[in-house]
Amino acid sequence: MANLRILKKEIDYRLEELVFDCDMAIYFQPAKDKEIFAVMQQGVELRNALYVKANNPTEPHNPSLVRKYYAALRQEILASFGELFEKLSQIAEVK
After folding, report:
1. pLDDT digits (tens, 9 = 90+) for 22-37
2. Is 90 exceeded by the pLDDT of residue 2?
3. % helix / strand / coil in the chain, to the nearest 5?
């Protein structure tokens, strides 16, 4: 990880993309706005939880463990937001 600031920007970027996709889904399917809004709220809660984790590594004085911690956090970011995008896709799916 190069920089904590870059990691936080990545978290915010993924949240922005989720919110944008939720807005588009609400625009095209207004009948499902409650479910889509719930996904948007989960995204904001996830962003806040990831910020807390990013600001508080487990062993801040051991550089090797900090690198491993942030590598695992980066994988968690990808997996967590991926799950939210999948949930949004299932909700917005036309049947």
Report:
1. 999 999 999 999 999 9
2. no
3. 85, 0, 15
CB 22 within 8 A of CB 37: yes
Residues in Cβ contact with 13 at an 8 Å cutoff, skipping those fewer than 6 apart = none
Longest CA–CA span in the chain (Å) reads 53
Q: How far apart are CA 24 and CA 45, in angstroms?
A: 20
CA distance 17 to 85: 9
Residue 82 and residue 86: Cα distance in Å, rounded?
6
- State how far Cα 76 lies from the chain centre: 9
Burial 46-79 (b: 16+ CB within 10 A, else e): bbeebeebbeebeeeeeeeeeeebbeebeeebee
